[in-house]
Design a protein that fits this description.
Layout (H helix, E strand, L loop, with lengths): L10 H14 L4 H12 L3 H7 L8 H6 L14 E2 L2 E2 L6 H17 L4 H4 L8
Antiparallel strand pairs: 1-2
Length: about 120
């Protein structure tokens, strides 16, 4: 069975959609980058290279080559694009929807500590 056509979409083409969605809601590119790095293990320098306009790395390659997918991503639940995350069977589509869900939570004003599934640091 052939993969979904989104798998071949260049990450550098999708990335501006994430930042625009966040910025429209008063969030920042830095927060988007922090989420992506948290989820995938890419460093900021690696991410900067991947989001360079014209970079041909597609979503399949982006997730396949991610340095270390965060184990806490299994805590991401809910619905994205009308589909329950728990019901997504394709492993690559699940990774894509995890990222979509995190960006959605950012745009909805959720605190970064909650988005990144971490405990707040005591004051």
């Amino acid at each position: 069975m052939a993969g979904h056509r989104i798998f071949k979409l260049a990450f550098s083409d999708l990335y501006p959609n994430y930042t625009q969605k966040a910025e429209r809601k008063g969030r920042t590119k830095a927060e988007v980058d922090e989420i992506i790095c948290w989820l995938t293990g890419y460093s900021q320098a690696q991410l900067d290279e991947l989001i360079e306009p014209g970079n041909p790395v597609n979503l399949e390659e982006f997730f396949r080559d991610a340095p270390k997918m965060n184990i806490a991503r299994s805590q991401i639940t809910g619905t994205i694009c009308g589909v329950k995350i728990a019901e997504i069977e394709d492993p690559l589509m699940l990774e894509i929807r995890y990222l979509d869900k995190l960006i959605d939570e950012l745009a909805k004003g959720k605190a970064m500590e909650k988005i990144l599934r971490t405990l707040p640091t005591p004051a």
